[in-house]
Structure formats: C-alpha cells, structure tokens
Design a protein that fits this description.
By secondary structure, this protein is mainly beta. 7% of the residues lie in helices and 49% in strands. It is built from one helix and 18 strands.
C-alpha cells in the first residue's frame, strides 16, 4: 500500500511540475518555479461613522486599525476621511495594521474630490513600503497625476512614481464615485472599475503581494480628496 501511495504522489508531483502556467488552489498558487506562494485572507471595511478626529483609529468592520504612511496628515471629518488642511502635507495615506500580505482580491471605496479640482484620492494595493506600491483613482486637473478627467493606475517602484495606464473619465465637482480595484499577483492582472463598469484592465510584472489602503492628495497643501465606505476582501 505504501508503495502504491508513493507512486501516486510522484505522478501528481510530476504532473504539477509539467504545468507551464500557475495553478490556483484557493489562497495557494503553484507557480512556474514550483514554489507555493500564499497570501492573507482578509475581510475589512470602514464607514468612518465616528467622531471627528485627527487620528483614524480602528476600522468599523474587521479587526484592523489604520496605519498612516507617506505623510501623517489624514483626519476623520463629517463621517468620511480626508487629508487635513493644516499639516502642510500634499499627500496622506493609510494601510491596514497589522500589515496584511494580500495576493488576490479587491479593494473598494466611495471617493470624491469635493469642490476643488486640485484634490484627488485613490485606492492603494500591493503596498510593501512607502517606496513600493500601486494606486488607482480619479483626477480632473492637469497638476494631478495623468491630468484632467482621467482614471489613473500608477505604481511606485524603488521610490519612482510612474503611470501604468490611464483612460478618459469625466469627473464632476462634489460627486461621489464608487471605485474598485481587482488584482491577482499570480497573473499580474489588474482591473479598475468606476461605478460598476470596468475602465482599465492590464497586467504589470511589478505587482507583488502587499497591504491595502487609500490615499488623499491636494496639490496646494490644503484639504485633500474624500474617502468613505472603504472595504477590502481577499
């Protein structure tokens, strides 16, 4: 019996090694190099329905707290979150704590630039550190990312910020948009939806397992873009 089981196991292993692509077994992926990689399963959300505060605190759904990165300039205001107007910062960003290592899933939120065209906000994924992460969001001013009325997918690799891809999207003042990024590091696939419709779809070999979150930006160092009803599932 032991000999038969050994032969069967050898056959299974040989078959797996001969597969030229990646085979997905739930959260574990057998890649071309035959090394199994795994990611954390998470279910986290935050509606930011709490008292105004210059610290973000714990998420309303899940067991995580927010860790501010890049510049500590975010605040909860009127049941959503934004970059504040008195820190002198241009960027504000936050990711989950304790840090998660997500390889496949999505991150989603309601986001708005409010009444200023120099504001923007985006979703963060594949976050390793402040020099290595991906982000996607809307902009409607040439001083912000890819320019006016755009949906942008960008990456920071080794501290260098660059565009992955972008597309046209009309952005209106004081309007909330549901933005969703779906990603899978085993296939390097990324798609970006706005209001339930796919706007961008691509692959990028720099995409890696990492943390998830959001950012708020304001080119004039004033109040940044707004985020509400944030969630992530993997």
């Amino acid at each position: 019996m032991m000999k038969i089981m050994s032969i069967m196991l050898a056959m299974i292993m040989t078959c797996s090694y001969c597969n030229a692509g990646a085979v997905d077994f739930g959260r574990y992926v057998l890649a071309r190099n035959n090394v199994a990689s795994s990611g954390d399963s998470i279910s986290a959300s935050d509606d930011f329905n709490r008292a105004d505060s210059d610290t973000l605190g714990s998420l309303s759904g899940g067991t995580y707290t927010w860790n501010e990165v890049i510049e500590t300039s975010l605040e909860v205001k009127d049941n959503n979150v934004r970059k504040d107007d008195d820190s002198g910062a241009v960027w504000g960003a936050a990711v989950l704590s304790p840090a998660v290592d997500v390889y496949s899933g999505y991150v989603q939120a309601e986001q708005s630039r409010g009444d200023s065209s120099t504001r923007s906000c985006a979703l963060i994924f594949g976050y390793v550190d402040t020099d290595n992460y991906f982000y996607a969001g809307l902009s409607d001013n040439a001083v912000v990312w890819a320019g006016a009325n755009k949906i942008n997918l960008r990456k920071v690799v080794g501290g260098v910020d660059s565009e992955v891809t972008s597309g046209d999207y009309s952005v209106s003042s004081s309007t909330w948009y549901t933005i969703k990024v779906t990603f899978n590091t085993s296939t390097n696939a990324i798609s970006v939806d706005v209001e339930g419709t796919e706007q961008l779809s691509t692959t990028d070999s720099d995409l890696t397992n990492g943390n998830v979150g959001f950012l708020s930006q304001q080119a004039d160092q004033l109040v940044g873009g707004y985020t509400d009803d944030w969630s992530a599932v993997s």
